[in-house]
Specification:
The protein is an all-beta fold. The protein contains one helix and 22 strands. Strands 1, 2, 3, 20, 21 and 22 form a six-stranded antiparallel sheet that branches. A four-stranded antiparallel sheet has the order 4-5-6-7, with no helix packed on it. The longest helix has 6 residues. The radius of gyration is 18 Å and the shape is globular.
């Protein structure tokens, strides 16, 4: 087990050290995670050859720190992978929903990984405006509110420019919500922070990589800026988690333009960064986040997983971390 310290955090949250388990977890492109109860979590990889999900066992200690992670196998089908990015367990339906960027659909799978033939009906503005690079990335479901939430990673075509270090634009996103019957219930305008990267990059990704829906109707949004330096040394990932409170008064009219509209107010919950340096290889591209169990004092544990691009070049690791919030 490897561990490195976190750097920045908001007062409201406790960030535990990120850890990796290279002897227990196969190298992957882990991009989504959802809690199945007890110590079981469904995890999707965007480089999986076949459609489906892994089941990981993640043991936490009394403080919410990760003690161990084990792979309990892959549950899938013969379909090719859909560049799966997000996953959510829907308890009332006893099934798992998976978002994929290949066609920007959210499909329902049984707990054995078999397609049920059901999917979330994406509004036209998403179906026609999402790209394969910056399509449907994040997915979450909450059994108390009976709501699914999803969002594209970056700005949809027609809603403005996608953020880059060169243009400094703020991504303008549509949070999309559905109920248990898979009926569209609304869209909400979410605006990301402006990029902080200023130097030329060999690769760059700025977007919302994960969502977690809370029991009180609020939503946690993970903003991630991934800057890859040409020499790889100096590459960084900055992560920020914000809390928003969507209300009925914030719902956008169907296919409404975002021009001139006010985005949801957001409150910073936690932030941290990671990097590749001469002697530091902590860089972690966190793309999966879900609610885990609550501690005895009632605080909520968030479980996060990073995408190492199959442990790229032997430098990146499949990092996990937990954050405890009020």
């Amino acid at each position: 087990m490897l561990a490195l310290p976190s750097f920045l955090s908001a007062q409201e949250a406790v960030l535990h050290e990120q850890v990796s388990f290279p002897d227990a977890i196969p190298a992957g492109g882990y991009s989504g995670i959802t809690w199945l109860g007890d110590d079981r979590y469904a995890v999707v990889s965007d480089i999986s050859e076949h459609d489906g999900f892994f089941v990981f066992s993640i043991q936490l200690d009394s403080l919410g720190r990760i003690a161990s992670v084990a792979n309990r196998g892959f549950r899938g089908n013969d379909d090719r992978g859909h560049d799966n990015e997000g996953v959510a367990w829907c308890q009332p339906r006893n099934s798992v929903f998976v978002s994929g960027e290949t066609d920007n659909q959210v499909r329902e799978l049984s707990l054995d990984g078999i397609p049920t033939g059901k999917s979330l009906p994406m509004p036209k503005v998403v179906a026609q405006g999402a790209s394969r690079k910056y399509g449907l990335e994040a997915l979450t479901y909450n059994a108390q509110t009976h709501r699914f939430w999803t969002v594209s990673e970056s700005t949809l075509r027609g809603d403005g420019e996608q953020a880059t270090p060169e243009n400094g634009a703020k991504n303008k996103l549509r949070l999309i919500t559905f109920d248990d019957s898979l009926t569209l219930k609304g869209q909400y305008f979410y605006e990301m922070d402006a990029p902080e990267a200023e130097l030329a990059s060999s690769q760059y990704a700025m977007g919302v990589s994960a969502l977690s829906a809370l029991d009180n109707g609020q939503l946690l949004v993970l903003e991630r800026e991934f800057f890859v330096a040409p020499s790889k040394i100096g590459s960084t990932v900055q992560c920020r988690i914000y809390r928003v409170t969507p209300t009925a008064g914030d719902i956008l009219p169907a296919s409404a333009s975002l021009q001139g509209r006010k985005p949801l107010e957001k409150q910073l919950v936690a932030e941290w960064d990671s990097a590749i340096g001469l002697l530091c290889f902590s860089l972690a591209n966190y793309e999966g986040m879900c609610l885990g169990p609550k501690l005895q004092d009632g605080r909520q544990v968030l479980v996060l997983i990073s995408d190492s691009q199959n442990q790229y070049a032997g430098v990146l690791s499949d990092w996990f971390r937990t954050i405890v919030i009020e």
